[in-house]
Amino acid sequence: MPKMDAAELSRMLGDWARPGRLLPDALAAGLLELIDAGFAPAGSVLPAQRDCAKALGVSRSTVASAFAELEARGYLASTVGSGTRVRSGRAAVATNGRLFSFTHSAPGVIDLSTGALPASEVARRELATGVSGLDDYLETDGYFPAGLPVLRQAIADRLTRDGIPTVPQQILITSGAQQATYLAMRTLVSPGDLAIVEDPTYRGGLEALRTLGARVQGVPLRSEGIDVDLLGHALVRRPAVLYCQTGIHNPTGTTMPRGTRAEVGELVNGAGTAVIEDCCSYDLTRGPGVARTLAGHVGDDLLVMIGSLSKLFWGGLRVGWARAGASRIRQILELRKAQDLATSVMSQLLATQLLRHAVEARRERRQMLASRLGSTQEVVREIFPGWRWEPIRGGTGLWIDTGGDVLALAEPAKRAKVRLAPGPSFSPQDGQRTMLRLPLWHDPQMLAEALGRI
């Protein structure tokens, strides 16, 4: 029977404590919602009461009362020595709640749980002008499963200018990078297959692997990138895929040195292991140019690169892309037809317009993030002087070591109407228990208010 970790339960419960409602009643209601939705399916084992109480920031008696209420109603069953299991409920929904924070916040809530940026000034300006070139497509059926040729060409040209020679046939346009990641993984991973990831890594990648039923092994991320020696040992197990970020890493903001990148390439080429490289943040370096990737170190027959326009322009466009060899692109293409047929023509035309201003958008984002990095660090040092972090090379957040149990911070923060992104969300084994990912872009006054509430 699957056993739920306390960090996983905390994520999926979300803002479970309701004003004016007793905590045991509110917790029981939150658990019942998870059971009814299939997120805690029949047969799954809940964390021990002591672990739940610690993770949720409540007394053990609160947890015991909530469990007892649901047991009396027939939803839970407790056995001495075996813990508490879900007795009845819907069929399982394959998720562990890592993306549950991507929902609209209630009024008064300050959301520090995501590093996603608001629209750039470049995007606001171009979006205000409207879509050009739409008339040429109105006589077609509007379905372009691989993407508009003009956008595929624009992305191929951009990658080529960035030092990654690319032709349009190597590009597939998707409805955001998360879809590209999921589809690429689905071409490579079957239920029960082993997938290797960095620990920590992007939580959306972990959620996709969980949905596909993969067994996930984390390899520690060091200051010089993934631990190459441990990666070599992991590849001996013949995993189906390595999912990694060697450019600007989410959530740590680090960059893998060229030498380490070459070692990783040599290892995966030798093992014949397919690689999905998340390159969504490679524009957001602190210096000139873009971050390097595994392109050139890993053959196109093994490497799938994932990119997005969300970081430079706006996530609301929902335009992402995958770059791979022609045969892999064909596989992904056929899978995406069954999912949503094609990405919006209007979004793709807007994306094509925006890419003409990519250099300007990079400059704007870097200036904004550099400024907010300074102000964010000042606020954090003032309010939590004991927190520590390593210098970052880019990206939209700080990876902070709080020195304590971050779940014990996140749960009271929910009740203070502040959403946080605890480290376990970014770990395949719900590790990183002292770490917190804090976004950079918030106004200093708002950030100070949020941390002050905590």
Number of domains: 3
Please report the first level of CATH classification, the CATH class of the largest domain. Alpha Beta
Radius of gyration: 23 Å
Q: Give the count of helical stretches.
A: 15
Overall geometry comes to globular
Assign the CATH superfamily of the largest domain. Answer: Type I PLP-dependent aspartate aminotransferase-like (Major domain)
Helix content range: 25-40%
Total DSSP E strands:
16
Which structural class do the helices and strands define? alpha/beta
**Any low-confidence stretches, pLDDT <50, length ≥5?**
none
Q: Main β-sheet, in a few words?
A: 8 strands, mixed
Family: In the C-terminal section; belongs to the class-I pyridoxal-phosphate-dependent aminotransferase family.
Protein name: 2-aminoadipate transaminase
GO molecular function: 2-aminoadipate transaminase activity; DNA binding; DNA-binding transcription factor activity; pyridoxal phosphate binding
Keywords: Aminotransferase, DNA-binding, Pyridoxal phosphate, Transcription, Transcription regulation, Transferase
